[in-house]
Design a protein that fits this description.
The chain is of the alpha+beta class. It has 20 helices and 19 strands. Helix 19 crosses helix 20.
Length: 578
């Protein structure tokens, strides 16, 4: 669905009205925001920080390849769904005519229902909710447009009890809190869990995103707030101590399941199991790995870049330093590079950044193409033996954050200079923006990234498709010698470099899931007729890489290019059309 051509244009007076409506909405989020301020002082692990069941076929009503359930589990299931999502919490962009396109938190600001019908034709969205188009799936996903299926879901604790859902007080099952993480697979799975529990099994379920506002699939305004914590162990501890979460006077930061956990958490999950916090971890069905990538056009022009054998050596230092320039965020470009401080449009920026979110961006499809510049670090005349090209990667805490070990021991003249120390890394969002900027400006870039992820799917078939760089062969000995999180994130450079024997490609890993121990204990203590179906579903649900890829493609078909601030509509449509 192409929504770009349907965006409404507002003048300054109307913008004031919109801002007033937004302020009213933000009041509802205030409690979570206050708690969030408290949590900011706490150290938050990254998604990969070091820190099998036999099944029976489901009925044809639910394709059996999606689920593997033990004997006796209910098999009257609905078609599996999923969604990929990246959101800009709030943005509006000025057009050349001085008017504004209003895109707020994935929701669509409106003044009448006809505006909603333009964006979501024949979907039943209306203009309400304080000046925003309503979520057409607020009553449920699986029964949408299907009169033969009950239209209502079970309410969760984030709902205002209304006609859009069935009062959860009428059900005997305790609510399930699901952490969503801040990367795509985790977010997809959290929504899948919520929809299945709420609409098929009659179990109240909500998304717990680490005190960052409403993240539920059913949110009336189609908001989606990614988590500010990769793995929120505090939320698990609260749910394990009180499975109902009622003793905390709030269900915020109280969660029973994390649908996706990477192997970098191995030390943490071993301790959590020993402490009785979680059940033994099990697979969520997905396999993934980190690799180095360059765009396909660069691979065609510079075949030496296709492997570490071609990248290594002093003879390649100047080539790498001159090729891989430093990415430049929007604010730096306007303040330090632009001749007019972005007061007037040029070939890179149409204007200066409008808010704090835009200031740190490395790319914006409409207003900032991105810019790659040569710094003193790239200058081999000034720094003959230490000049380097830029290497883009996520935090040292992630499983793929050990690239320094490879670059040092193979003498590959690349180094990150991003804002995340001590390795000069970038946030997940920034990495995506940098690659998009390289695509828009046809600039060389080399980046460590992971699969499965829709970012790879997004550029498939284009000249900017992510093409893997060949690293040394993986061996068991090498895996044992790779640096762990503590070593990768050390402030001592020699510690981060690790041993030469640990230089090799990364292995595919099976992603795990966390389930708090109290959930399984409560299930085992109850009689068969009193047991909640939530535990068995969560324990045995699996999703494959092919199925995730299909979800990615469906989402990308509905997305308006690179514009993520309007994703609330196409994301939910992808869920219910798959």
């Amino acid at each position: 669905m192409n929504v770009r051509g349907k965006q409404q244009v507002y003048n300054k007076k109307e913008m004031k009205w919109i801002h007033e409506q937004l302020a009213r909405r933000l009041v509802e989020e205030q409690r979570a925001i206050e708690l969030q301020k408290y949590m900011r002082s706490k150290k938050e692990p990254s998604k990969n920080d070091d820190t099998s069941s036999t099944g029976v076929s489901c009925s044809s009503w639910w394709p059996s390849r999606f689920l593997h359930f033990p004997s006796g589990f209910p098999t009257r299931l609905l078609s599996l769904i999923g969604v990929a999502l990246i959101l800009v919490p709030y943005s509006y962009a000025m057009d050349s005519d001085g008017k504004s396109k209003v895109l707020i938190g994935g929701a669509y600001a409106c003044k009448n229902t006809s505006m909603c019908e333009e964006v979501m034709p024949k979907m039943g969205s209306i203009c309400a909710n304080g000046g925003f188009c309503t979520n057409p799936y607020s009553r449920g996903c699986l029964g949408f447009g299907n009169e033969s299926y009950p239209p209502l879901r079970v309410c969760n604790s984030d709902d205002k009890q209304n006609s859009d859902c069935l009062n959860s007080a009428e059900f005997t099952y305790e609510e399930i809190g699901i952490q969503n993480g801040d990367w795509q697979n985790a977010m997809f799975l959290a929504w899948i869990y919520q929809i299945f529990l709420s609409e098929v099994l009659g179990v109240p379920a909500r998304i717990d995103n680490g005190l960052n506002g409403n993240a539920n699939f059913y949110d009336i305004g189609m908001l989606y707030n990614v988590s500010k914590m990769y793995y929120n162990y505090e939320g698990l501890k609260r749910a394990n101590a009180d499975s109902s979460c009622e003793s905390y006077n709030t269900h915020i930061n109280c969660s029973h399941v994390i649908p996706e956990v990477w192997s970098g958490q191995k030390d943490e999950w071993r301790k959590a199991q020993e402490d009785g916090l979680i059940d033994p971890v099990s697979s969520n069905g997905l396999l993934g790995r980190y690799s180095w990538y360059i765009p396909v056009w660069l691979a065609e022009e510079q075949s030496d870049f296709m492997s570490t054998y071609g990248l290594k050596g002093e003879e390649m230092r100047q080539t790498l330093a001159e090729t891989f320039k430093r990415p430049t965020n929007w604010t730096y470009y306007c303040n330090k590079v632009s001749e007019n401080k972005c007061e007037f449009e040029d070939s890179v920026a149409k204007r200066a950044p409008a808010d704090e979110d835009e200031e740190g961006k490395y790319y914006d499809r409409d207003f900032y193409t991105g810019y790659f510049r040569q710094t003193d670090r790239n200058n081999c005349t000034l720094n003959k033996s230490s000049c380097t090209g830029e290497f883009i990667s996520e935090s040292c805490g992630v499983t793929g954050g050990g690239s320094e070990q490879v670059m040092h021991h193979l003498n590959i003249a690349l180094k990150g200079t991003g804002p995340l120390g001590p390795t000069g890394a970038y946030s997940n969002k920034a990495c995506r923006e940098i690659w998009s900027a390289a695509n828009a400006t046809r600039s060389p870039v080399i980046m460590s990234w992971y699969q499965p992820d829709s970012f790879l799917t997004k550029f498939e078939g284009s000249q900017s498709a992510l093409t893997a760089v060949l690293l040394p062969t993986l061996t068991a000995t090498c895996v044992a010698k790779k640096t762990n999180k503590e070593q990768r994130c050390s402030n001592v450079e020699e510690t981060r470099f690790g041993q030469r024997e640990g230089v090799c490609d990364s292995e595919y890993e099976s992603f795990k899931k966390y389930i708090v121990a109290s959930l399984s204990l409560d299930w085992k203590k109850k009689k068969d007729v009193e047991q909640s179906p939530a535990y068995l579903f969560i324990r045995d649900f699996q999703l494959s890489n092919l199925e995730i890829s299909d979800i990615f493609r469906r989402l990308l078909e509905n997305l308006d290019g690179d514009k993520s601030s309007f994703i609330g509509i196409p994301a939910r449509k992808a869920v219910c059309s798959w």
